[in-house]
Amino acid sequence: MAVRSDEEVKEMxxxxxxxxxxxxxxxxxxxxxxxxxxPYDLLREMIQLNIAQKADYTRFWR
Length: 62
Fold this sequence. Notes:
- The structure is a single chain.
- With 62 residues, this protein is mainly alpha-helical.
- It starts with 5 loop residues before the first helix and ends in a 9-residue tail after the last helix.
- The model has no long low-confidence stretch (mean pLDDT 80).
- The chain has helices at residues 6-20, 40-53; strands at 24-25, 30-31.
- The protein has one domain.
- The protein contains 2 helices and 2 strands.
- The chain is 47% helix and 6% strand.
- It has a two-stranded antiparallel ribbon.
- The longest helix is centred in the first third of the chain and has 15 residues, at 6-20.
């Protein structure tokens, strides 16, 4: 069994949430259709997770 990084675990969790709400996703993006409501709560949560993960990171890109 492969060991997953924290980022992979977070991505799986967000991916499941995205799919549960009826949105489609690809490796590093997800699609919101023109007729779909924008999930601001999910966006906020994903941004906060990224900020927390990069708190001690000193370079721009991972």
